[in-house]
Specification:
With about 475 residues, this protein is mostly helical. It has helices at about 10-25, 30-45, 50-60, 70-80, 85-100, 105-120, 120-135, 140-155, 160-170, 180-190, 195-210, 215-230, 235-245, 250-265, 270-280, 290-300, 305-320, 325-340, 345-355, 360-375, 380-390, 395-410, 415-430, 430-450, 450-465, 470-480.
Length: about 475
Amino acid sequence: MTCRYPDLGREREAVEKFGLLARRFSVHALAEEALCAQFETLLRLDEDERSLETAARFVREYPSSKHVPAALSAKAWALKNLLRATEAISAYKALLRRFPKGGRAPEAHFWLGVLLEERKKPANAAAHYREVIESFPESVYAEHAQYRLANCLYERGEAKEAAEVFTKFLRRRPESPLIEAALYGLAWAHHDLKEPHGERAAWRRLLERFPSGPYSFDASFALGELAFSEEDYEEAAAYYRRALSYTSGEGADAALYKLAWSLKKLRRESEAAETFEEVHTRHPSGRFAADSMLNCGRYFLAKGRHAEAAVLFEKLVSSHPATESSREAAFDLAECHLKQGKWKKALDRYKESVGHLQGGDLRRAAYGMGVALLNLGATADAADQFRKAVGRGEDKLAAMSQLGLGDCAFRERDFEKASRSYYQVVLLYGFEELHGVARYKAGRSFEALGETERAKKFYRDVLRHHPNSEHAPRSEERLKALGGE
C-alpha cells in the first residue's frame, strides 16, 4: 500500500491514509512507517495537537524504532508551538538523555537555548548554544546558535565576551543573512565597553554594507553621537541628517534635536534656531520639545525679538509645567518683559523664578527686580534688590547694579549718595562702556547739589574718555548750560 498524496501536495488526505494504514494493519511492517509519516505530515501542516498525540503514540507503540528521535523531536516541537514551554523543555531534555549525540541533538540543544532564553535564563541558554557550536559545528543550527550565544552574553552584561563571539561570527560567516544583526550587536557591545573606535568601525561597516537596512537609522544616529561626544560637530550634523533621511517617525525627534545642538555648537545660530523650532512644532509633546522651545526663545531674545521670545516662553511655561525648561523659561520671560518695559509682569515672573535659581542667576533676578521696582516707583525695595545683585561680585552685573543704586538714591533726591554710587562704578569696575554713563550721572548729581565745578569736571571726563558714547552730546549740552567750554 503506497501513498503518493504528500508528493502531489495532498497532505491532508495523506494524513488520513497513513492513519488508516496504521490502525487497520497495526501488525504490518509498514504500520510503523505510516504512523511516523503521519506525525511528520501533521507537523508540516502545523496541526500541533494531533502531531503531539500521534508522536506520543508512536513512542509508546514503537519504543525501539529508529524513528523514536524524530518522534521525540516532533513531540517537543509541537509542545513549543502550543506555548507549553515547560513541557517542551522537558521533552527536548528527554531526547538528549536518550540520544545525546544523535542527529536530532543539535536541534534539541538549539531550541532548548531559545526556550530558556525566552524564560530569562541566558546562562542556561548559552550553555546549549555553546554545545551546538562546539559539538555540532557543521549542523544547520550552528550559525544561529553562534549569533544567539553572542546575544545571550550581551544580555547577561558580558559585553567583552559578546564582542568576541560576534567578531568570530562575522569572520567565519561573512555571507550569513544574520551579518547585519551581528554588526548591530557588535556595535552595541563596543558601546557598552566604552570602545568608541570599535563601535564606530562596526556602525560604519554596517552602513557601508546595508545602506538602507533596518538598522541604518540607528547606525547613523550612533555615529552622530560619537562625533558629537568628540566635539566634531560638522561630522555629527552630517550623520544626524543622514539618520533623518531614514525616518520621520520614532527617533526622528532625537536626531533633529541633536542636529540643532550640533548647529548651535558650530555657532550657526540661525540654522540652529530654525531646527529647534522644527523639533517643537513637529513633535510638540515629545521629550525634546521643551528644551527646543527654550533654545529657540533664547535665540529670539538674543536677537532683540522680545515679543516673539515672550510668546514662546509663555507657551513653554503653560504647556510644560514643572519641568526644568519651564522654570528657566519663566526667568527668561521676565527678562523679555523687562526689555519691553512691562515692569509689573517682569517683577511677577522674577518672583516666580527666585525659588528655583542659584548663584549668578539669583543675582540677575535681583537686578531685574531692582530695575522693575525702580520703574514702578518702589525705590527702597529696588535698592534692596540692587544691593543683592552687587553682592561681592566684580562682574558687569555688579557694576550695573551699582549704577542702579545710584539711580535709586537720585530718585529719592539723595544726590550725595547718588554721586558716590555712580563714581564707584568708575573706581571699582573696569567696564569702560559703563564709565561714560556713570560719569555723566555723577555730574548730574553734583549739579543737583549745586556743586557746579565738580559737575563740569565729570562732564569734561565724559568728553575726554568717552567721546563716542551716547552721553557725550548730553555732557556737552550740560557744560554749555553751566557756562563751561
